[in-house]
Design brief:
The chain contains 8 helices and no strands. By secondary structure, the protein is an all-alpha fold. It has 2 domains: 70 residues, lambda repressor-like DNA-binding domains (434 Repressor (Amino-terminal Domain)); 39 residues, no CATH class. The longest helix has 15 residues.
Length: 120
């Protein structure tokens, strides 16, 4: 299970970026990236979190609850498969729509043929 800093490093290295490269993208020094990745910074600034999400095209949960990402590679693939229109539409669902989405997801989770071998 990953921590926030490990998730940042995972995404950074996946894109073949150095700490310097990511620092330039976020407008911070390499030392700040080192602190993020080492866990020395426990609470990322909201602006930094937003920039990370936009650059890596992932939702905030990737950084706020990285331990939930049992299979980061698979999770990243799913989130990046959703285009920004779909992400925006999901975020803007009303209460009834959110409940239907949750119900649908819960039903899918019960069907073995849709489960990865790792989650069984």
């Amino acid at each position: 299970m990953l921590e926030t800093g490990e998730m940042i490093k995972f995404l950074r290295t996946k894109k073949k970026l150095t700490q310097d490269d990511l620092g330039v993208i976020l407008g911070v020094k390499k030392s700040a990236i080192q602190k993020y990745e080492s866990g020395a910074v426990q609470n990322l600034k909201m602006e930094t979190l937003k920039q990370l999400c936009e650059y890596f095209n992932v939702p905030p949960v990737v950084f706020t609850h990285p331990a939930r990402m049992n299979d980061p590679e698979n999770a990243m693939g799913f989130f990046s498969d959703l285009n920004s229109y779909q992400q925006d539409r999901i975020i803007n669902l009303n209460e009834r729509g959110r409940q239907r989405l949750k119900d649908y997801i819960n039903n899918l989770l019960k069907i073995e043929e849709y489960q990865s071998k790792k989650s069984r």
